[in-house]
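Feature request, filed as a ticket because there's no other form

It would be nice if the structure record came with a short human-readable summary line next to the tokens. Right now we just get the raw output. Example of a typical job, pasted below so the devs can see what we mean:
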Amino acid sequence: MKKLIIILFLYSNLFSYSLIDYYRANGSYNIGKTAEKLLKSKDFWLKRLKNYDTDFGYYENLNNLIIVNKNFQSLDLYRLKNEQFELIQTADILIGKNQGYKAIEGDKKTPTGVYNLTKRLYKLNQFYGPLAIVLSYPNLFDRLKGRTGSGIWIHGKPLNGAKRDSYTKGCVALENSRLKKFNRLVKDVQKSLIILEDGQLKKVSKNDLATVLSSIYIWLASWKENRFSKYIGFYSKEFKRFDGNGLKWFRDYKRSIFKKREKKKIFITDINISPYPNNYGRNMFLVSFQEEYRTSKFTWKGKKKLFVEVINRKMKIVIEK
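Raw output as currently delivered:
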């Protein structure tokens, strides 16, 4: 019933006449087929995104977005409400002593990329202030690029009032009062995301987001329907799976699965798409969603992540987990 309501909602956003009349004439099966067709349409997504605030990406399951600008040494906290980003806190920060993209343990650089907040830490050495919030560095992109290091936090300043250096070893540091306010505002760290950028974050185009969203559903349909050539065509020549296996291995592995011609049911929800800052000059995004995969012999539920690139108006998957 929930899936039918979602389908009806999608349908109602594109057509003006009565859904009841359409149902009477065509039945629920045809509504479902029409919805699947719409989800694969770039024009549909452009219309759906028309009134969305997409400057920082597209999010279906996010409460807070944090933008750290390393050049300006600022932190901006946004709340996503009614499909709009609302700035609710801004603060000056300290970052790593050395500039540029973090590459190895001990280089005293603050990472650049997209990270989750994972947990809060209390009762630390007083040097770190009243608390710290842990970031998910290194993420999968970092690890596959050979980047090392750990212990990247958002934390405060010494509780004893001692003056500390004007930089960190790679963390993001705030004044303690600002940190406490930040902690109060970010109630659910699991639904918060941080983008660390060396320069001004470029606004995300609705055209790119519509390309990614429609491509995700075309990719998904080719997977469900065992259309191997269409499916594998979404993968970059540089593709790496989470375990480091490349495109050749992945192609052979997937071909063997597709040959079984299994009937699959695949559902995705809670799609989030973040622009991914990188030092390669590439138009990249981190896509995450909840996936449910079912065959007669196998069931899997969990979170899936794709690092994708939009190039020549097409989406290519660079990394998959």
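Something like this underneath would help us a lot:
The mean pLDDT is 91.
The radius of gyration is 22 Å.
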